[in-house]
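Predict the structure of Rho-related BTB domain-containing protein 1.
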Amino acid sequence: MDEIDYDQELPRELIKCVVIGDTGVGKSRLICAEALGVGILPPQPSQKQHVHFPTVFAIDQYHVSQEIRKRGNFKVDGVDVALRLWDTFGDHEFNRKFAYQHAHVVVLCFAINCPNTFKNVNAVWYSEIKRYCPRTPIILVGTQSDWRMHFKNSSLVNVSRSLSKRMQDCSLVTPDMGRQVAREIGASYYEASVVTMWGIHDVFENAVRAALITRRQTRFWSSHLKGVSKPQLQPPYLPDKPDAPGINVEVSTYKENLLALLHSGMCADVEFLVRGQAIQAHRAVLCAAAPVFAELFSAKELVINSGIRTPRRLVFQDALVFGKAGSLPRGFVAITSYNKTWVSDECSFEVQVIIDNFVSHKTFMYILEFLYSGVLPVEACTDELEEAAQDLQICNLVDYVTNVLNNVGYMNTEVHSNFIRGMASCSKKLVNTQMFSDIVFKIEGRIILAHKSFLVAQCEMMAAMFMAGHFKESGVQVVEFKDTNFDAFLKVLEFLYTGQCPCLALDDTLAVMALANFFCLPRLVALCEQVIVKELQVSMASDEMAVAEDVIGYLVESQVHNASQLEAWCIHFISTHYNAICRKCPKLVKNLDTSTLKNIEEKRWPPSWYIVEADWYEKAAEQINNEKIAEKLRKSHKQVRRKQKCTCLRVSA
Ligand SMILES: Nc1nc2c(ncn2[C@@H]2O[C@H](COP(=O)(O)OP(=O)(O)OP(=O)(O)O)[C@@H](O)[C@H]2O)c(=O)[nH]1
Ligand SMILES: [Mg+2]
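Done. Here is the predicted structure for Rho-related BTB domain-containing protein 1.
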């Protein structure tokens, strides 16, 4: 076969490179990656099928395209080459004789995730090469090297095992094993992956070197091949450092929870009579949502003398409300406060408010829905609602409805956030206050007053606790929690009342996180995780390792309190600072449980196999360097000796 490519303007060294190996090891993909620069996506656990189209003909498929020919023309060590890639089928039974003909180099592939294909290097392929082209140099390639990264992903490995027999009992072929066999068959060893595209060009560039060196030995007059070096060492592949996992805080469902509370009527303590129909609600929520209700419900105490007193109830009508003499504000007709001992007789609620007939039941329901959530559907925003909101002095609702009626509904984002801000600040003030309190907690011997409405709306566990008959707490007025931190409990209440992250100092956060987990509040757990991670990151800014001990402590706590995001963050930190942490606090690391240590080990970055490889590479490179120096010295000594010899002769002559 002609060894110069005369198709080109300039003659090039033509290299025929035959790629062989078991079926499915990735020969065709490897060739495509080199010839077209095209890789494949990483395997996915959801992947139902291993897509593999076996090659049928051993032909130089890649010869025909101009673009591929161009990509095959490159320079290696100053020599212009034209690389021609020959794909083959991997089935052992087929005859590949004509593919081997005139080959300048053989690239022999096995898949590192399939030990059988590795066994066949010696068992099948080496003898085949020796039979058809005994003097052709060989490059041994471990394909699919990305499996070194996926292998710790057990779900992926299991899927692959179930899909492919090749992956059964699979353990990865190590680079050392690859190099050992390469030595035995007199080849150079490389690894490559068409997923990461790492090592692809290394394989073919060094295949070209191997071919050119063999050519140099037979064509001694080709002085331009002088500079071609031996196949080079392949530096190990360092995968990208994984990003630290973020802390994801789920969107607040505060308003949805309060709306659900309104519609369920659970723990209601006020009844509105609207055109004779009853609607139940919660005084604490209404007071936090609109000042008019705060004043209305608390005013009865101030004007007790103006009311009509009976043993059973106290009725206020046209009485002193809002500190002024005169009638109730427009819209409110009467407020009846029932004596608790008579509650079961006439009304099951402590307070009953009669609403003026000009407000319809539907309109009043919309008003309540707004007060519980800060939003309303567009169809609810009518002139009637606007008027009612004005009469009841609910300013946010007036603005909200007016915006919708004026077709500037987009401005309601601001109205809504103002409303939520106001509500949060008012509801926060209700924490541990007597006003409308209907439950008492005893923590560390101290009393905390609370409102069931907020608790049952925001916390399913509390809702179950206070639901009749389920827990012993449902019937009692005082609930005691043992081994609970008083301040942390107040912070949890603040979260339940406001839906927002309470102001947390780092020292309190763990106790709050523990309680949040106890009460099954994943959002509060995540907010605590976020506070901890932010604080750690601030400390890391000056010295990353300064937080090492804290991180181990937080890891242990996060496992106890199901803070999985904090756990993942801590594991990432330890895995990416493994050696430094082991040096700094070996005892703490040792005390971690075995499954955590295994998890850390699997996620280590740089991975342990990379560290072993980097070590090998450094030593091998140093050895090659030393050999080069020794070779140079030998040559220069030879020259000196030759010169000395000449002088002697001349002198003696
Ligand atoms: N993860 C990973 N999968 C690969 C890689 N290379 C190939 N594969 C997978 O292996 C399958 C087979 O690859 P091919 O290149 O068709 O195998 P082949 O050696 O040409 O097989 P035959 O033509 O039958 O001899 C591909 O479809 C991919 O799913 C790689 O680098 N990484
Ligand atoms: Mg193929």
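Confidence is low (pLDDT under 50) at residues 300-314, 317-326, 341-346.
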